[in-house]
Structures are given as C-alpha cells and as structure tokens.
Amino acid sequence: MEKFYKIFQNNFFSRSKNPSQPTNGPLPLITISREMGSGGKSTANLIALQLGKPWKVYDHELIDKIAKNKNLEEELIRSIDPKRLPLADIITAKTFGKRFTRLSGYQRHLIKVMTLVGLKGYVIILGRGGNFLFPHALNIRMICQYDQRITWQMTYEHISRPEAVKRIEESDKERKEFVESLFNHNHCKAYHYNLVIRTGSDITVEDATNIIIDLTKRKFKI
What we know:
The chain is built from ten helices and five strands, in the order H-E-H-E-H-H-H-H-E-H-E-H-H-E-H. By secondary structure, the protein is of the alpha/beta class. The longest helix has 23 residues, at 161-183. The protein has a single domain (2-8, 26-220), classed as 3-Layer(aba) Sandwich (Rossmann fold). A five-stranded parallel sheet has the order 2-3-1-4-5, with helices on both faces.
C-alpha cells in the first residue's frame, strides 16, 4: 500500500506544462465542511466566482446527481487527464482499504464520483467528507454560533424559528452520520482541517471568502 501511496503522491504533485496552472504541487482543490447556517455554500460560490474559470463548486446535490446519471459521469471522466484516472483506485485503497468492499453499492459509487471530481482539479467540494479523501487539498471547516445559525436560516430561507431549529438539528445529525458511516471519523474535530473559520458578526462570508482565496493562492501558487 505504501508503494501505491508514493505513486499517488508523485502524480498528485505532478508538474504542469500549462503556464496558467501551478508549476508544482497538487492541482488546486478546496474542500469545505460546514454547519448549516454558517454560510459555507455562499462562501464556496463566492470563491468560485472570484477565482473564475475553470473553478467550479460541487455540492452534495451535484455529486449525487452525477452518481445517478451515467452521461454526467462519463462527461466528468472526459474532463480529467487520462493519465490521472488510475489515481482514483489508489486514493480509494489508501482511504478505505479492505473496508471499501463492505460499503453499499451506492456508497462505493458515490466515493468513486467524489474521487473523480477531486482529480479534475480547480474544484471546491462542499461537504460529503471530501477532506478525508484528499488530505493534500486545502481543507476548510466553517462553523457558526448556534443562535446566529438560527437567525441566518430564518432570514435567508424565510422560515420560522422552530422550523430553522428543526432543519439545523436534522442537518447536523445527517451530516455526522453520513461522514461516520463512510469514513469512521467525526467531521467536527478541528484537526481534520487546515483551518476552521467561525463566521458571525466579526467574520462575514466575504471575510471567509477572502481568507480562503488567499490561502488557496499561497498553497497552490496560483
């Protein structure tokens, strides 16, 4: 396995002949794990907007859509350098080992799609435990004080306080169970990330966007 992982590192940190891409280091990749109401999705979209093409956000809805649509999956595969495609199996083997065979068929397919998305580069993976698949990405966790999360949900979703509380509690439970079922990790632990940002009155979504963009440019030399 260590031999395979060295191959993965050598390829993932491969040099690019395209002057618009980083001359060394991994293809740019950001993962954002977030609490509902912390502004994670808005931040991801702002990052992609400000960095410009070819950056793209892949949230759980888009990843699930690709996993369920053969044509979209084939389109994703065509967008990846063929020399990098074998890395998908290496990443999966390194992350899951023999446990991969015990996952459900849907879970295995979802992991495959997420891995392909990461290999594409210039993407922001929102949620779904992407940081556990790509430890060399810029891995961000976004959190927020509970009352602020409720307020923002009420404001932007135009819902009552009880409904906001219900959605937040259900979201926290679902996300925790999803990550634990796939990766056997608690996604709330800070050491799984390069940076944890707590948004609120002192740190806005725009502030978080600027911080992450600055770190992205530094890390990937773009």
